[in-house]
Structures are given as structure tokens and as C-alpha cells.
Amino acid sequence: MKVSVIIPAAGASRRFGGKTKKIFERLGGRAVFIRSLELFVNRPDVCQVQLVVAAEDMETMQGRFGANLGFMGVKLVTGGAERTDSVRCALEHVAEEAEYICVHDAVRPCVSPLWIDAVFAAAARTGAAILAYPVHGTLKRADGERRIVETVDRRGLWEAQTPQVFRKELLLRAYAQHRGEATDDAALVEALGEPVAIVRGDPRNVKITTRSDLALAAAVVDSLPKPSRPAPAGPFDEARW
Asked: What is the pTM (predicted TM-score) of this model?
């Protein structure tokens, strides 16, 4: 199995607030996006990792993190206005040898290698698989004035996470036929009428959207099993977690 990994990191961080974009925030001593890259760069089944960033962040990436990214073998790609635009930009550079494409949010740094193993294996069996977690809370639909309109039946509902992994030709076809907006890549594949398998994820797979999420992610990083010999994030870094 040869996988090309795309890490979209071109978001504007409007909901995060502050002067520093969330991908550059420090988490356990390293930038959030570096931790997300580290999930994939040393895997034997990964043949390529692309980091998609906003044009306005390219100078920062090359200046502050260029040595790290070069050491990790990560390809920098300029993204677009929306998430789907950014993924589309990276699809133009997918390695020919890749058989599968994995898309993972740059702001989901708290993923166990075992979860990645599971979703990769499911994609190899089925052609398309994502991590997701069942919805446990009571869901309410509200109107524009925040008055409850209905209680939504949560049976069969799952919250989609990443990584999301697809056969290369399947995701390329989904993007070729895509029109309009989509909140994740699985939705584009679903629009083709193709099945997408769910691999049960974990609530610790936090997506950092607000500052409170960053604090939660820090606690999760401390709780996850540590690799026996974590790889350094750059040529001048000591191996650490």
C-alpha cells in the first residue's frame, strides 16, 4: 500500500482568534501542524506528504520551518480560498506511485498510530474509509433566534473525523465532478454514489478550532501512548514527544 498524504493548513483561523494562526500555536513544544505531519512522515506505507498552506503563510513556512520540512521530506503547496480548493491544488502534485490518498486536518495532531493503521487497512479493503465517532449527546435544531425547532434523532449519526483515505482514482474522480461546497472529502465520494466505510475513531482526536480546543489537545497529547523512539521534527531537534 502506497499512500500520498495531503495536510490542508490554509484556513484563516477566524474562530480561533488572536494574532497567531492555530497551525503555528505551540503544542508540547512544537507547532500544531508539525505534530500532525509527524503522524505520517516516518510510516513505511506513506510515499509522499504534502502540506497545503495559504499564500500569505508561505514566507513564514519557508523561513521559520523550511529546514524542518526539508528534513521531513514534506512538499509545500499553495492552497486556495476554501478547503476543497486547497485539496484540489495538492491533487495536482500527487506522486504517480501513490495508490491511495489520505487527507488529514493540520489541526488534528492527537491521533494514535493505531487509528491510522485501522483506517489505512479499511481503505485497502474497501477503497474508501474515514475515522468517525458516534454521536452520543442530544442534538437540537434551532432557528435563527436560537429557539429549538426539533430534537434530532441521533441514531445512526457519526461525527466525521480525519484521516480520510481513498483509492487515488476515486478521489481524483470525485474532485473532477465536484461542484459547490463540501465540508469533507468523504462527501464528494458519497456524491458519486460510492460507499465510504467508517472506522470507529476516538473522542481524543480533537480538531483545534478554538483556544479551549488547544488546551484540550495539550491534555490529550500527554495521555496518548508515546513512541519508544520519537523522530526529531527537524535537523537540529532532539527526538522528543
From this structure: 0.90
